[in-house]
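Hi R.,

Here's the chain you asked about this morning:
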Amino acid sequence: MKKIISWVIRSVPRKYLQIVSPLALQILGFFYRGKGVQCTVCTREYKKFLPYGRGNSARNNALCPSCQALERHRLIWLYLQEKTDFFQNKKKVLHIAPESCFINRFEKIHQNDYITADIESPLAKVKMDIHKIPFEDNTFDVAFCNHVMEHVDDDIKAMSEIYRVLKPNGWAIIQIPFFDMNLQTTLEDKSINTPQERFKHYGQEDHVRMYGQDYGRRLEKAGFIVKEDDFVKTLSKEKVTKFALPTEEIIYFCKK
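And the predicted structure, written out as tokens:
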């Protein structure tokens, strides 16, 4: 199963994968029914979650068949529940590269003030380039942008654009993947420009950099006050296991 899912992720363009994967995963989920794990997003229970990832980085017990939430999504959902008022008060929200597990649930709460945007995703309401966000200054209370910055040409510019469209005291969660937790400084080199070389140096064919422990400082360059919240470390082992959460994920809570 892990090899099949890995091949699909590598071979099928993301915009098509987002359309066809929900039904296929729900069919697979029928065979995973049980009481071993529970998704924080949709609350469904399974014996275990589906594997997910590319090649050697594929992970067991990762993907919820019902809502397509991964480990990081389940953690973010729990963080929003326990550390913010996101689910209690209606807000103006910008969701860049929106994850399917969140869209309907966020829209139900924030209604027409919930705006999804992406350069190519069929799930997004607004087509946009993150380097030039088509909204006025001080428009949004909250922004989400997860696993996008490793793909963009100028990440500091993209971060600055998110900062610009947030209202004063607004906040954003801007997550990125860490392939090497010991890397001190972000690795990026314009001469690394083929899929093969990018995979070799950055861990994925469509990444243009690999972030290091200076990621928070890069967000600060864009103007944010950054809290690197080790939230998962405050949770019990039982909760981490039950929800299959990522044990090393830091939440980057960025405030204007």
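The chain has eight helices and eleven strands.

Let me know if you need anything else.
M.
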